[in-house]
């Protein structure tokens, strides 16, 4: 099964693994699953570090990307179908976060399930499976 990590789960996986739920940990560690990370998550992390929203995150992006790859996860380029799905995804008033919406759109375009702890992702359960 293919899964896309939400940025929040990615941050926990690499910097606070004890916070990763047992369910998510089991999925991530199952060798039958492929775990993907969108390059957009790296962009989101970079922006949040720069504006002070992640003051405790000290890992530079090159190290983060290498860490993800060393764990057997797959980095996912941003592609035109991801952008198209973003454009077509209905805008829900309770959720306008562009990074979250792009992660969701990417998962839809790639027919992946998404691993997230963000309750707002459930607003899109009509379009994809959120674990």
What's the SSE blueprint?
Layout: E1 2-5, H1 7-15, H2 22-29, E2 34-38, H3 39-50, H4 61-70, E3 74-76, H5 80-88, H6 98-109, E4 113-115
Parallel strand pairs: 1-2, 1-4, 2-3
Helix pairs in contact: 5-6
Describe the protein's architecture and organization:
With 131 residues, the chain is of the alpha/beta class. It has one domain (2-124): 5'-nuclease (Rossmann fold, 3-Layer(aba) Sandwich). 46% of the residues lie in helices and 11% in strands. It contains six helices and four strands. It has helices at residues 7-15, 22-29, 39-50, 61-70, 80-88, 98-109; strands at residues 2-5, 34-38, 74-76, 113-115. The protein has a four-stranded parallel sheet. The radius of gyration is 14 Å and the shape is globular. The model has no long low-confidence stretch (mean pLDDT 95).
Overall helicity: 40-55%
**CATH class category label:** Alpha Beta
Instruction: Kindly report the spatial arrangement of strands forming the biggest sheet.
Output: 3-2-1-4
The shape is globular
Kindly give the count of domains: 1
Overall pLDDT confidence:
95
* Amount of beta strand: 5-15%
Radius of gyration: 14 Å
The CATH architecture can be given as 3-Layer(aba) Sandwich
Order of helices and strands: EHHEHHEHHE
Primary descriptors:
single chain; 131 residues; alpha/beta; Rossmann fold; four-stranded parallel sheet; 11% strand
């Amino acid at each position: 099964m293919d899964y896309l990590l939400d940025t929040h789960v990615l941050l926990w996986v690499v910097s606070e693994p004890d916070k990763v739920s047992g369910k998510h940990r089991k999925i991530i560690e199952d060798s039958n699953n492929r775990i993907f990370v969108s390059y957009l998550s790296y962009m989101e992390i970079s922006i949040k570090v720069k504006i002070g929203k992640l003051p405790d995150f000290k890992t530079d992006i090159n190290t983060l990307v290498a860490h993800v790859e060393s764990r057997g996860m797959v980095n996912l380029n941003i592609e035109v179908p991801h952008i198209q799905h973003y454009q077509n995804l209905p805008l829900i008033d309770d959720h306008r976060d562009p990074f979250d919406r792009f992660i969701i759109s990417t998962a839809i375009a790639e027919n992946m399930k998404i691993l997230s702890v963000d309750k707002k992702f459930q607003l899109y359960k009509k379009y994809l499976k959120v674990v």
